[in-house]
Amino acid sequence: MRAPLPTHHNVVVVGGGQAGLSASYHLRRHGIDHVVFEKNRIAHTWRSQRWDAFCLVTPNWQCLLPDFPYTGPEPRGFMPRDEIVAYVEAFARSIDAPIREGVAVTRIARGEEGFLVETSEGGVTADAVILAVSAYHVPNIPAMTANVPEGIVQIHSSAYKNPAQLPPGKVLVVGSGQSGCQIAEDLHLADRPVHLVVGSAPRCPRFYRGRDAVEWLDDLGQYEITVEEHPLGEKVRRNANHYLTGRGGGRDIDLRRFASEGMVLHGRLTGIENGRLEFGDDLARNLDAADAVYNGICGLIDRHIADKGISAPEGVHYSPVWQPGAAVHSLDLAAAGIASIVWSTGFRSDWSWVDLPFLDETGYPAHRRGVTNEDGLYVVGMPWLWTWGSGRFLSVGRDAGFVVDHLADRQITGRRRPPVRMAV
Q1: 3-class secondary structure per residue, the chain
Q2: Would you state the pLDDT for residue 397?
Q3: Which of 32, 75, 164, 355 is 20 to 30 A from 147 via CA?
Q4: Cα 83 to Cα 115: distance, rounded to the nearest angstrom
Q5: Domains plus CATH for the chain?
Q6: If we measure between CA atoms, which residue out of 234, 245, 243, 272 comes closest to residue 423?
Q7: Is the pLDDT of residue 5 over 80?
Q8: 257-267: per-residue pLDDT in tens?
Q9: In Å, how far are 135, 140, 257, 285, 392 from 347, measured between CA atoms?
Q10: What mean pLDDT do residues 325-340 have?
Protein backbone atom coordinates (compact mmCIF):
# COMPACT_ATOMS: atom_id res chain seq x y z
CA MET A 1 0.00 0.00 0.00
CA ARG A 2 1.57 3.28 -1.05
CA ALA A 3 1.69 6.46 0.99
CA PRO A 4 -1.29 8.81 0.81
CA LEU A 5 -1.10 11.69 -1.62
CA PRO A 6 0.37 14.89 -0.08
CA THR A 7 -1.91 17.89 -0.29
CA HIS A 8 0.68 20.27 -1.79
CA HIS A 9 3.72 20.13 -4.06
CA ASN A 10 5.84 22.92 -5.40
CA VAL A 11 5.45 21.41 -8.87
CA VAL A 12 3.09 18.86 -10.38
CA VAL A 13 4.30 17.14 -13.56
CA VAL A 14 1.59 15.50 -15.65
CA GLY A 15 2.86 12.58 -17.74
CA GLY A 16 5.35 9.79 -17.04
CA GLY A 17 7.03 9.44 -20.42
CA GLN A 18 10.44 10.72 -21.45
CA ALA A 19 9.31 14.37 -21.24
CA GLY A 20 7.84 14.19 -17.74
CA LEU A 21 10.78 12.16 -16.46
CA SER A 22 13.24 14.65 -17.97
CA ALA A 23 11.41 17.43 -16.14
CA SER A 24 11.67 15.38 -12.95
CA TYR A 25 15.45 15.03 -13.45
CA HIS A 26 15.89 18.79 -13.72
CA LEU A 27 13.55 19.50 -10.81
CA ARG A 28 15.67 17.20 -8.64
CA ARG A 29 18.78 19.01 -9.87
CA HIS A 30 17.30 22.23 -8.51
CA GLY A 31 16.10 20.56 -5.31
CA ILE A 32 12.48 21.40 -6.08
CA ASP A 33 9.74 19.32 -4.46
CA HIS A 34 7.53 17.71 -7.08
CA VAL A 35 5.42 14.74 -8.07
CA VAL A 36 4.91 13.08 -11.48
CA PHE A 37 1.40 11.84 -12.18
CA GLU A 38 1.04 9.12 -14.82
CA LYS A 39 -2.46 7.78 -15.41
CA ASN A 40 -1.16 4.49 -16.79
CA ARG A 41 2.43 3.22 -16.54
CA ILE A 42 5.81 4.70 -17.30
CA ALA A 43 6.35 4.80 -21.09
CA HIS A 44 2.70 3.89 -21.64
CA THR A 45 2.49 5.17 -25.21
CA TRP A 46 5.58 3.26 -26.31
CA ARG A 47 4.29 0.16 -24.56
CA SER A 48 0.67 0.11 -25.69
CA GLN A 49 0.32 2.19 -28.87
CA ARG A 50 3.06 0.66 -31.02
CA TRP A 51 2.94 -2.47 -33.12
CA ASP A 52 5.05 -5.57 -32.47
CA ALA A 53 7.68 -4.83 -35.13
CA PHE A 54 7.93 -1.12 -34.27
CA CYS A 55 11.36 0.43 -33.86
CA LEU A 56 12.81 3.92 -33.76
CA VAL A 57 13.31 5.75 -37.03
CA THR A 58 16.12 7.79 -35.50
CA PRO A 59 19.41 6.06 -34.58
CA ASN A 60 20.11 5.04 -31.02
CA TRP A 61 22.90 7.57 -30.56
CA GLN A 62 20.21 10.27 -30.63
CA CYS A 63 18.73 8.84 -27.41
CA LEU A 64 20.09 11.50 -25.06
CA LEU A 65 17.92 11.69 -21.98
CA PRO A 66 19.60 13.80 -19.25
CA ASP A 67 22.78 12.09 -18.02
CA PHE A 68 21.39 8.89 -19.54
CA PRO A 69 22.57 8.47 -23.13
CA TYR A 70 22.20 5.22 -25.00
CA THR A 71 25.19 2.99 -24.08
CA GLY A 72 24.23 -0.21 -25.85
CA PRO A 73 26.19 -2.08 -28.52
CA GLU A 74 24.42 -0.55 -31.54
CA PRO A 75 24.62 3.26 -31.45
CA ARG A 76 23.79 3.34 -35.16
CA GLY A 77 20.99 0.82 -34.77
CA PHE A 78 17.31 1.42 -34.06
CA MET A 79 15.80 0.22 -30.79
CA PRO A 80 12.68 -1.95 -31.09
CA ARG A 81 9.61 -1.21 -29.02
CA ASP A 82 10.44 -3.29 -25.94
CA GLU A 83 13.97 -1.89 -25.71
CA ILE A 84 12.57 1.65 -25.91
CA VAL A 85 10.28 0.88 -22.96
CA ALA A 86 13.22 -0.60 -21.04
CA TYR A 87 15.35 2.48 -21.77
CA VAL A 88 12.69 4.86 -20.43
CA GLU A 89 12.05 2.67 -17.38
CA ALA A 90 15.78 2.49 -16.63
CA PHE A 91 15.99 6.29 -16.85
CA ALA A 92 13.14 6.60 -14.33
CA ARG A 93 14.96 4.27 -11.93
CA SER A 94 18.26 6.11 -12.37
CA ILE A 95 16.74 9.43 -11.25
CA ASP A 96 14.46 7.86 -8.62
CA ALA A 97 11.55 9.78 -10.09
CA PRO A 98 8.73 10.49 -7.60
CA ILE A 99 6.15 9.06 -9.96
CA ARG A 100 2.63 8.02 -9.08
CA GLU A 101 1.53 5.51 -11.69
CA GLY A 102 -2.16 4.86 -12.15
CA VAL A 103 -3.12 8.39 -11.10
CA ALA A 104 -5.09 10.35 -13.68
CA VAL A 105 -5.20 14.15 -13.62
CA THR A 106 -8.80 15.11 -14.31
CA ARG A 107 -8.72 18.89 -13.91
CA ILE A 108 -6.26 21.74 -13.49
CA ALA A 109 -7.47 25.19 -12.47
CA ARG A 110 -6.31 28.31 -10.69
CA GLY A 111 -6.37 28.38 -6.91
CA GLU A 112 -5.89 31.23 -4.47
CA GLU A 113 -2.08 30.99 -4.55
CA GLY A 114 -1.30 28.63 -7.39
CA PHE A 115 -3.01 25.70 -9.06
CA LEU A 116 -5.66 23.20 -8.04
CA VAL A 117 -4.93 19.75 -9.47
CA GLU A 118 -7.73 17.20 -9.25
CA THR A 119 -6.72 13.56 -9.66
CA SER A 120 -8.25 10.12 -9.43
CA GLU A 121 -6.74 9.88 -5.92
CA GLY A 122 -7.88 13.29 -4.70
CA GLY A 123 -6.92 16.91 -5.06
CA VAL A 124 -3.59 18.64 -4.51
CA THR A 125 -2.34 22.17 -4.86
CA ALA A 126 0.82 23.26 -6.65
CA ASP A 127 2.83 26.40 -7.25
CA ALA A 128 3.53 25.36 -10.84
CA VAL A 129 2.43 22.69 -13.31
CA ILE A 130 4.35 21.09 -16.18
CA LEU A 131 2.20 19.41 -18.84
CA ALA A 132 4.31 16.61 -20.33
CA VAL A 133 1.64 14.80 -22.29
CA SER A 134 2.64 15.69 -25.88
CA ALA A 135 -0.14 16.83 -28.21
CA TYR A 136 -1.35 13.39 -29.32
CA HIS A 137 -4.15 12.53 -26.95
CA VAL A 138 -7.10 11.00 -28.78
CA PRO A 139 -7.04 8.89 -31.97
CA ASN A 140 -8.38 10.95 -34.86
CA ILE A 141 -11.22 8.86 -36.25
CA PRO A 142 -12.75 10.37 -39.42
CA ALA A 143 -16.54 10.68 -39.49
CA MET A 144 -16.61 8.60 -42.67
CA THR A 145 -15.84 5.47 -40.62
CA ALA A 146 -19.57 5.38 -39.83
CA ASN A 147 -20.25 4.68 -43.52
CA VAL A 148 -18.09 1.55 -43.67
CA PRO A 149 -20.29 -1.54 -44.17
CA GLU A 150 -20.80 -3.86 -41.23
CA GLY A 151 -18.48 -6.85 -41.23
CA ILE A 152 -15.37 -4.89 -42.17
CA VAL A 153 -12.99 -4.69 -39.22
CA GLN A 154 -11.79 -1.16 -38.45
CA ILE A 155 -8.95 -0.21 -36.10
CA HIS A 156 -6.85 2.88 -35.53
CA SER A 157 -3.11 2.60 -36.09
CA SER A 158 -2.53 2.97 -32.33
CA ALA A 159 -4.34 -0.36 -31.83
CA TYR A 160 -2.54 -2.24 -34.62
CA LYS A 161 -0.14 -4.97 -33.41
CA ASN A 162 0.59 -7.40 -36.24
CA PRO A 163 -0.87 -8.85 -39.46
CA ALA A 164 -2.36 -11.87 -37.67
CA GLN A 165 -4.58 -9.50 -35.70
CA LEU A 166 -6.61 -8.77 -38.85
CA PRO A 167 -9.02 -11.19 -40.53
CA PRO A 168 -8.11 -12.91 -43.81
CA GLY A 169 -8.55 -10.72 -46.86
CA LYS A 170 -7.19 -7.48 -48.20
CA VAL A 171 -6.31 -4.59 -45.89
CA LEU A 172 -6.87 -0.90 -46.59
CA VAL A 173 -4.41 1.38 -44.79
CA VAL A 174 -5.57 4.99 -44.76
CA GLY A 175 -2.71 7.45 -44.35
CA SER A 176 0.91 7.49 -45.48
CA GLY A 177 2.68 9.18 -42.60
CA GLN A 178 5.31 7.32 -40.63
CA SER A 179 2.85 4.93 -38.98
CA GLY A 180 0.76 4.29 -42.09
CA CYS A 181 3.76 3.54 -44.30
CA GLN A 182 5.40 1.29 -41.73
CA ILE A 183 2.18 -0.61 -41.04
CA ALA A 184 1.62 -1.02 -44.78
CA GLU A 185 5.15 -2.39 -45.04
CA ASP A 186 4.56 -4.72 -42.07
CA LEU A 187 1.51 -6.16 -43.82
CA HIS A 188 3.26 -6.27 -47.19
CA LEU A 189 6.21 -8.23 -45.75
CA ALA A 190 3.72 -10.72 -44.34
CA ASP A 191 2.33 -11.24 -47.86
CA ARG A 192 -0.95 -9.57 -46.99
CA PRO A 193 -2.55 -7.78 -49.98
CA VAL A 194 -2.63 -4.08 -49.15
CA HIS A 195 -4.38 -1.00 -50.49
CA LEU A 196 -2.72 2.21 -49.27
CA VAL A 197 -4.27 5.68 -49.31
CA VAL A 198 -1.40 8.09 -50.00
CA GLY A 199 -1.40 11.58 -48.54
CA SER A 200 1.07 14.44 -48.60
CA ALA A 201 3.68 13.22 -46.09
CA PRO A 202 7.28 13.68 -47.27
CA ARG A 203 9.97 10.99 -47.35
CA CYS A 204 13.64 10.93 -46.41
CA PRO A 205 16.59 8.75 -47.45
CA ARG A 206 17.78 6.33 -44.82
CA PHE A 207 21.37 6.12 -46.01
CA TYR A 208 23.08 8.41 -48.48
CA ARG A 209 26.69 8.80 -49.50
CA GLY A 210 28.03 6.36 -46.94
CA ARG A 211 26.12 7.50 -43.84
CA ASP A 212 22.69 7.57 -42.28
CA ALA A 213 21.00 10.73 -43.52
CA VAL A 214 20.28 11.62 -39.89
CA GLU A 215 24.02 11.92 -39.28
CA TRP A 216 24.42 14.27 -42.23
CA LEU A 217 21.42 16.34 -41.12
CA ASP A 218 22.83 16.52 -37.61
CA ASP A 219 26.15 17.80 -38.97
CA LEU A 220 24.20 20.39 -40.94
CA GLY A 221 22.51 21.66 -37.78
CA GLN A 222 19.02 20.79 -39.00
CA TYR A 223 17.94 19.50 -35.60
CA GLU A 224 19.03 22.77 -33.97
CA ILE A 225 16.94 25.10 -36.15
CA THR A 226 14.40 26.75 -33.87
CA VAL A 227 10.75 27.44 -34.58
CA GLU A 228 11.55 31.13 -34.76
CA GLU A 229 14.35 30.55 -37.30
CA HIS A 230 12.38 28.17 -39.51
CA PRO A 231 10.89 29.73 -42.67
CA LEU A 232 7.44 28.42 -41.73
CA GLY A 233 7.62 29.69 -38.18
CA GLU A 234 5.05 28.09 -35.87
CA LYS A 235 3.30 26.54 -38.87
CA VAL A 236 6.11 23.97 -39.01
CA ARG A 237 4.46 22.29 -36.01
CA ARG A 238 1.69 21.11 -38.32
CA ASN A 239 4.07 19.44 -40.80
CA ALA A 240 3.93 15.68 -41.20
CA ASN A 241 7.07 13.73 -40.33
CA HIS A 242 9.16 12.21 -43.11
CA TYR A 243 8.60 8.52 -43.63
CA LEU A 244 11.40 5.95 -43.50
CA THR A 245 12.14 3.05 -41.17
CA GLY A 246 14.73 1.66 -38.79
CA ARG A 247 13.46 -1.88 -39.32
CA GLY A 248 16.02 -4.48 -40.37
CA GLY A 249 18.91 -2.12 -39.66
CA GLY A 250 17.20 0.78 -41.42
CA ARG A 251 16.06 1.39 -44.98
CA ASP A 252 14.05 3.68 -47.21
CA ILE A 253 10.33 3.26 -47.56
CA ASP A 254 9.60 3.41 -51.28
CA LEU A 255 5.87 3.28 -51.98
CA ARG A 256 6.54 3.01 -55.71
CA ARG A 257 8.54 -0.16 -55.15
CA PHE A 258 5.72 -1.54 -53.02
CA ALA A 259 3.33 -0.78 -55.89
CA SER A 260 5.58 -2.61 -58.35
CA GLU A 261 5.39 -5.61 -55.99
CA GLY A 262 1.60 -5.60 -55.86
CA MET A 263 0.54 -3.03 -53.27
CA VAL A 264 -2.32 -0.91 -54.61
CA LEU A 265 -1.89 2.83 -54.11
CA HIS A 266 -4.69 5.39 -54.13
CA GLY A 267 -5.02 9.14 -53.85
CA ARG A 268 -6.49 10.81 -50.81
CA LEU A 269 -9.71 9.23 -49.49
CA THR A 270 -12.48 11.78 -49.92
CA GLY A 271 -15.52 9.79 -48.86
CA ILE A 272 -17.31 6.47 -48.36
CA GLU A 273 -20.82 5.93 -49.61
CA ASN A 274 -22.89 2.82 -50.29
CA GLY A 275 -19.90 0.56 -49.73
CA ARG A 276 -17.72 2.48 -52.18
CA LEU A 277 -14.52 4.39 -51.49
CA GLU A 278 -14.03 7.71 -53.26
CA PHE A 279 -10.50 8.95 -53.99
CA GLY A 280 -8.98 12.22 -55.04
CA ASP A 281 -6.94 12.59 -58.23
CA ASP A 282 -3.70 13.36 -56.38
CA LEU A 283 -1.75 10.09 -56.16
CA ALA A 284 0.87 11.04 -58.74
CA ARG A 285 1.22 14.51 -57.26
CA ASN A 286 1.67 13.15 -53.73
CA LEU A 287 4.28 10.62 -54.80
CA ASP A 288 6.17 13.24 -56.80
CA ALA A 289 6.14 15.68 -53.87
CA ALA A 290 7.48 13.06 -51.46
CA ASP A 291 10.27 12.18 -53.90
CA ALA A 292 11.09 15.85 -54.38
CA VAL A 293 11.66 16.20 -50.62
CA TYR A 294 13.77 13.03 -50.66
CA ASN A 295 15.97 14.36 -53.45
CA GLY A 296 16.04 17.80 -51.86
CA ILE A 297 17.60 16.25 -48.76
CA CYS A 298 20.10 14.43 -50.96
CA GLY A 299 20.94 17.74 -52.64
CA LEU A 300 21.41 19.44 -49.27
CA ILE A 301 23.87 16.72 -48.28
CA ASP A 302 25.65 16.98 -51.65
CA ARG A 303 26.21 20.70 -51.15
CA HIS A 304 27.48 20.17 -47.61
CA ILE A 305 29.97 17.56 -48.80
CA ALA A 306 31.18 19.82 -51.61
CA ASP A 307 31.42 22.92 -49.42
CA LYS A 308 33.40 21.13 -46.70
CA GLY A 309 35.56 19.10 -49.07
CA ILE A 310 34.44 15.86 -47.41
CA SER A 311 35.53 12.56 -48.92
CA ALA A 312 32.38 10.48 -49.40
CA PRO A 313 31.08 7.91 -51.87
CA GLU A 314 29.15 9.25 -54.84
CA GLY A 315 25.42 9.53 -54.35
CA VAL A 316 22.55 8.81 -56.71
CA HIS A 317 19.30 10.73 -56.44
CA TYR A 318 16.06 8.80 -56.54
CA SER A 319 14.42 7.96 -59.86
CA PRO A 320 10.88 6.58 -59.82
CA VAL A 321 10.68 2.81 -60.25
CA TRP A 322 6.93 2.88 -60.90
CA GLN A 323 4.37 5.35 -62.20
CA PRO A 324 0.64 5.30 -61.48
CA GLY A 325 -1.69 4.69 -64.37
CA ALA A 326 -5.07 6.28 -64.85
CA ALA A 327 -6.47 7.49 -61.54
CA VAL A 328 -8.97 5.21 -59.81
CA HIS A 329 -11.65 7.46 -58.37
CA SER A 330 -13.91 4.82 -56.86
CA LEU A 331 -13.57 1.32 -55.41
CA ASP A 332 -16.21 -1.10 -54.18
CA LEU A 333 -15.07 -2.51 -50.83
CA ALA A 334 -16.80 -5.86 -51.23
CA ALA A 335 -15.75 -6.38 -54.85
CA ALA A 336 -12.15 -5.50 -53.94
CA GLY A 337 -12.19 -8.07 -51.12
CA ILE A 338 -11.20 -5.56 -48.44
CA ALA A 339 -11.88 -7.16 -45.07
CA SER A 340 -10.25 -4.65 -42.74
CA ILE A 341 -9.22 -0.99 -42.54
CA VAL A 342 -6.37 0.50 -40.52
CA TRP A 343 -6.97 4.20 -39.97
CA SER A 344 -3.53 5.78 -39.73
CA THR A 345 -5.06 9.21 -39.43
CA GLY A 346 -3.11 10.58 -36.48
CA PHE A 347 -4.33 12.04 -33.24
CA ARG A 348 -6.03 15.16 -32.00
CA SER A 349 -5.36 17.12 -28.83
CA ASP A 350 -7.74 17.17 -25.87
CA TRP A 351 -6.93 19.87 -23.33
CA SER A 352 -10.46 20.01 -21.92
CA TRP A 353 -9.19 18.95 -18.49
CA VAL A 354 -6.98 22.06 -18.25
CA ASP A 355 -9.38 24.75 -17.09
CA LEU A 356 -7.11 27.65 -18.04
CA PRO A 357 -7.05 30.05 -21.02
CA PHE A 358 -3.68 28.88 -22.35
CA LEU A 359 -4.66 27.80 -25.88
CA ASP A 360 -4.35 29.87 -29.04
CA GLU A 361 -7.09 30.25 -31.65
CA THR A 362 -6.21 26.87 -33.17
CA GLY A 363 -6.49 25.02 -29.86
CA TYR A 364 -2.71 24.66 -29.50
CA PRO A 365 -0.92 25.71 -26.28
CA ALA A 366 0.30 29.29 -26.69
CA HIS A 367 3.90 29.17 -25.54
CA ARG A 368 7.44 30.17 -26.27
CA ARG A 369 9.91 27.36 -25.71
CA GLY A 370 7.49 25.65 -23.33
CA VAL A 371 6.68 28.73 -21.23
CA THR A 372 2.98 29.46 -21.64
CA ASN A 373 1.13 32.74 -21.23
CA GLU A 374 -0.34 31.36 -17.97
CA ASP A 375 2.15 32.19 -15.21
CA GLY A 376 3.47 28.95 -13.69
CA LEU A 377 2.11 26.67 -16.43
CA TYR A 378 4.56 24.94 -18.77
CA VAL A 379 4.50 22.41 -21.60
CA VAL A 380 7.26 20.04 -22.68
CA GLY A 381 7.63 17.04 -25.00
CA MET A 382 5.63 18.47 -27.90
CA PRO A 383 6.85 18.25 -31.51
CA TRP A 384 8.75 21.38 -32.49
CA LEU A 385 8.40 22.79 -28.99
CA TRP A 386 11.60 24.67 -29.86
CA THR A 387 13.56 22.64 -32.44
CA TRP A 388 13.03 19.66 -34.75
CA GLY A 389 14.52 17.44 -32.02
CA SER A 390 12.04 18.60 -29.36
CA GLY A 391 9.62 15.74 -29.75
CA ARG A 392 12.41 13.17 -29.76
CA PHE A 393 14.83 11.63 -27.28
CA LEU A 394 17.42 13.95 -28.83
CA SER A 395 16.30 17.27 -27.34
CA VAL A 396 13.42 16.62 -24.94
CA GLY A 397 15.81 16.70 -21.98
CA ARG A 398 17.25 20.04 -23.02
CA ASP A 399 13.76 21.50 -23.46
CA ALA A 400 12.80 20.24 -20.00
CA GLY A 401 15.94 21.83 -18.59
CA PHE A 402 15.03 25.22 -20.05
CA VAL A 403 11.49 25.02 -18.67
CA VAL A 404 12.67 24.00 -15.21
CA ASP A 405 15.36 26.68 -15.15
CA HIS A 406 12.67 29.25 -15.92
CA LEU A 407 10.45 27.77 -13.22
CA ALA A 408 13.27 27.71 -10.67
CA ASP A 409 14.15 31.35 -11.36
CA ARG A 410 10.49 32.26 -10.95
CA GLN A 411 10.40 30.56 -7.53
CA ILE A 412 13.70 32.03 -6.36
CA THR A 413 12.71 35.58 -7.22
CA GLY A 414 9.47 35.07 -5.31
CA ARG A 415 7.46 36.97 -7.85
CA ARG A 416 5.25 36.13 -10.76
CA ARG A 417 6.72 36.80 -14.16
CA PRO A 418 4.74 38.63 -16.83
CA PRO A 419 3.47 36.42 -19.67
CA VAL A 420 6.12 35.49 -22.22
CA ARG A 421 5.71 37.33 -25.49
CA MET A 422 4.56 34.88 -28.13
CA ALA A 423 6.27 34.69 -31.50
CA VAL A 424 4.20 36.15 -34.32
Answers
A1: CCCCCCCEEEEEEECCCHHHHHHHHHHHHCCCCEEEEECCCCCHHHHHCCCCCCECCCCHHHCEECCEECCCCCCCCCCEHHHHHHHHHHHHHHHCCCEEECCCEEEEEECCCCEEEEECCEEEEEEEEEECCCCCCEECCCHHHHHCCCCCEEEEHHHCCCHHHCCCCEEEEECCCHHHHHHHHHHHHCCCCEEEECCCCCECCCEECCEEHHHHHHHCCHHHCECCCCCCHHHHHHCCCCECECHHHCECCCHHHHHHCCCEEECCEEEEECCEEEECCCHHHHHHHHHHHHHHHHHHHHHHHHHHCCCCCCCCCCCCCCCCCCCCCEEEHHHHCEEEEEECCCEECCCCCECCCCECCCCCECEECCEECCCCEEECCCCCCCEHHHHCCCCHHHHHHHHHHHHHHHHHHCCCCCCCCCCC
A2: 97
A3: 164
A4: 36
A5: 8-137+349-413 (3.50.50.60), 139-343 (no CATH)
A6: 234
A7: no
A8: 999 999 999 99
A9: 8, 4, 28, 25, 17
A10: 94
The answer to whether residue 6 scores a pLDDT higher than 50 is yes
Is the pTM for the entire model greater than 0.90? yes
**Cα dist from 23 to 30, 89, 382, whole Å:** 11, 15, 13
Confidence of residue 410 (pLDDT cuts 50, 70, 90): confident
- For the chain, the C-alpha Rg in angstroms (whole number) is 23
Q: What is the pLDDT of residues 168-190, one digit of tens each?
A: 999 999 999 999 999 999 999 99
Scored b (16 or more CB within 10 A) or e, 294-310 reads bbebbeebbebbeeeee
Q: Encode pLDDT of 358-393 as tens digits.
A: 999 999 999 999 999 999 999 999 999 999 999 899
- CA neighbor of 331 nearest in space, from 286, 255, 259, 264: 264
Residue 413 has pLDDT above 90, yes or no: no
Confidence of residue 4 (pLDDT cuts 50, 70, 90): confident
Q: Give the residues across from 11 on adjacent strands.
A: 34, 128
